[in-house]
Amino acid sequence: MRSLLDSHFSVFYTECLLLAKYGDALLCVRYRYDVQSRTRSKTVELIVERKPWTPPAHRFKDDTHVPVRIGYDDTALREKAKAAQGRWDPKTRVWYIQFGKIKDTELEKLSYHKPQ
Questions:
Q1: Closest to 102 measured CA to CA, from 88, 82, 116
Q2: Is residue 58 part of a domain?
Q3: Label partner for 103 (CA 20 to 30 A): which of 13, 36, 69, 72?
Q4: pLDDT tier at 7 (50, 70, 90 boundaries)?
Q5: What is the mean pLDDT of the chain?
């Protein structure tokens, strides 16, 4: 019976072989297990192209008030919204915060476009 250490060494050895084969193009190795067919599939994720990329501009201007949806139980984020001088709108149940005050923060990820 193989020990757990042998199993880990086998995976490590296999990944080293894949690294030798694919080099810097190798991004990830995954193992998928299928209980019904009792098989293990090994998949690799490869980088096939690298080229310069410029991130898109922000969706809003800094002085635009954007809607930010914060969960009722998330008091830490609500405090951050208050610190950014956000305004709670009970009718729409969202915070409105000036985009420039939440740009590149956790709150920016919670902002969204209102449907027209």
A1: 82
A2: no
A3: 72
A4: low
A5: 86
Q: Tokens 């297990």 map to which residue?
A: 33
Identity of residue 14: T
Tokens 């072989």 belong to residue? 17
* C-alpha to C-alpha distances, 83 to 93, 97, 107, nearest whole angstrom: 18, 10, 12
Q: Mind listing the pLDDT tens digit for each residue in 47-89?
A: 999 999 998 887 788 899 999 999 889 999 999 999 999 999 9
Task: Indicate whether 116 belongs to any domain.
Answer: no
3-class secondary structure, 66: strand
Taking a C-beta distance cutoff of 8 angstroms, is the pair 41, 31 a contact?
Answer: yes
| Residue among 67, 69, 70, 60 at smallest CA distance from 104 | 60
Kindly state whether residues 40 and 74 are assigned to the same domain. no
Query: Is the whole model's pTM more than 0.70, yes or no?
Result: no
